[in-house]
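Thread: glutathione complex, take 2
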Amino acid sequence: MSSESLTLYTFETPQGFFNMSPFCVKADILLKMANLPFNTELPEDYKVFSKGKLPVLKDGDTIIQDSEFIRRHITDKYGETLDGNLTAQDKATGHALIRMLEERTIMGLVQGRWIEDAGWEVLEPLFFGELPANERTEVGKTVREQVSESLKSNGFGQHTHDEQHILLSADIAALATLLNNRDWFFSDQPTYIDAAVFGMLVNFYAAPVPTPMAALMAAHDNLVAYVNRGLEQWYPDVLKMMAAE
Ligand SMILES: N[C@@H](CCC(=O)N[C@@H](CS)C(=O)NCC(=O)O)C(=O)O
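Output below.
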């Protein structure tokens, strides 16, 4: 079935990079995998969407919020399951893996970008640099405090740095073990599981804002090779730019 007009709403992508939202990268790749033509747009105010998060897909008059529902929409409407030859066991393991990354491991990325000074120094001008000087400091400070509060109420922000490191490195080691020596997760061709996992790992390892997640990734050669393989597959220009640096 051919697509009507598809628009993927995402946050702004930093010049020459992939999107800094792992969920926006995931949705971008799912649409690319399904060979559906689409436009990417930055919404004027993403809070107009009822769930207040991006990515959001607009398909004709239908609005689909959340990368998981975007994946299901691609399957239900266009018949693209994007699951290659995954077994039921692979899909179940992939499901658990994605939930781990999206609900817990991502906290390390948020902590590194928003709370650690090294991340904040790079993130602040990227996210708030276009605001008028009189608003910039106050808005940045308020959002940073909100992020800190949400990390604390979630529980992750209550751990010491050492404890966070133990938890996060166990997540990354589990990923490295499950990937083993395959090119893609549980498969010789990329599937929807890779759209989600790569979206996250590329942001851990190669995003413009430095975080301690990169060093955790660097400890596993197979994960680094996986990120490079995904860049070659979906963002070859980024890979070229990184090689030239
Ligand atoms: N479960 C959602 C998560 C989306 C999400 O958390 N997006 C973040 C960016 S990574 C967001 O929109 N944050 C802005 C906000 O919460 O105001 C999905 O899979 O799409």
